[in-house]
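Before relying on records like the one below, remember that each one covers exactly one chain. Contacts with other chains, cofactors or solvent are not represented anywhere in the record.
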Amino acid sequence: MEQDDLYGQLILLGLRADAARIYEQMLRAEHATEAELAATLDIRPEGVRSALKELTVWGLVGRHDASDGFRVVVPEVGLEALTRRRQADVERARIAVSHVFETYRRSAHRADIGSPVEVVTGPAVKPRIRQLVNSVRCEIRRLDRPPHFFGPVNRAEIEQLARGVIYRVVYSRESLEEPGYLAENVTPCVEAGEQARAAADLPVNMTILDEDLAWLARPEDGVDAALTIVYAGGLLEALIGLFEICWAAAVPLHLAAGSAVPIRTEDRRLLALLNAGVSDGRAAETLGMSRRTFYRRLEQLMAQTGTANRFQLAAQAAHRGWLPAPAEM
C-alpha cells in the first residue's frame, strides 16, 4: 500500500477520521503531545484525546517514555485486529443474507403480496423492478455492487430525485471501477441530489423502498436472474439495519458541483475516486487516462492548491468545497 493511500485505508478499516489523521501525522513525527497534535492538525483537544484513546486501544500508539506525549508502536497487531474486525463484520452479513436469499429462492414463487417474501425470476425481473421503483413515496436506500440489471445510465433515479425522492446509495469499489459507471451513472445522480458513499466491499446487492420492502438482487443473464422481495417484518428490519451499518462505515463520495471555487468535472471525479480508496491504476483506467496523465494531473492539482502530498490536497479540496471535510467522514 502506498503511504499516500494510508488515510483512506484506515477509514475503510474502521478508524474514525480524527484517529486516522493523527496516526498518519504521528508516523511522520514519531512522537507528539496532545497539544502539538491539536495545533498541527487543527483538532479540538477533546477530539485529540478521544482519537489517541482509540489508537491506544487498537495498539497503534503508546505513551512516550521520555515525556507526556505519545509515540507510534509496531503496528502489525493493531492493524491485523482492525482488518479482522471489518472482515468479520462483512462476512457475517454476507453469510446471513446469502442464507436467507437461497432459502427463499428454493421455495415456490409467492405471488400473494400478503406473504413476507416474493421471488421473481427471469424476464419478469426488470419490469417488476420498474413497477416497484415507481411506487416509492419518500426514500430509496441501496447497496450497489456489480453485476447490475440495467446499463450505467440511470434516468429513473434522476426523475425520482426531481420529484423529491431521497436516495442514499453506498457504492462498492467494484462499481466505481466499472468502465463508464462513475461518469454515466454515479456523477449525474449525485449532481441531481443523490447522497452517495463508497465502501471497499459490500455483502449484497440490495435496494430498500421506504420502510415497506427491500429486494435482494442476483443479476444473471436470462432465466438465472432472480429478485427476492422482502416485505414488512423482522427480516426487512434486519436488512434495513444492515444498510445503516454499511452506510455509517462508508466514506462520503462527493461529486456535486456546488462549490464556490471552480473545478473541472474530470478533476472532481479524480479526487472522489482517491477519497473512496480506489487505487491509482484503477482510478486512471476509470477516468480513461494513462497513468502518466493521471500523475501529471495530480501534480497540477497539488500545484494549484499549494499542497505537497495527497493528504494536504484532500484537506484543501474539502476547504474549497470539492470534497467533504475530514471531520465529516
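The chain is about 50% helix and 15% strand.
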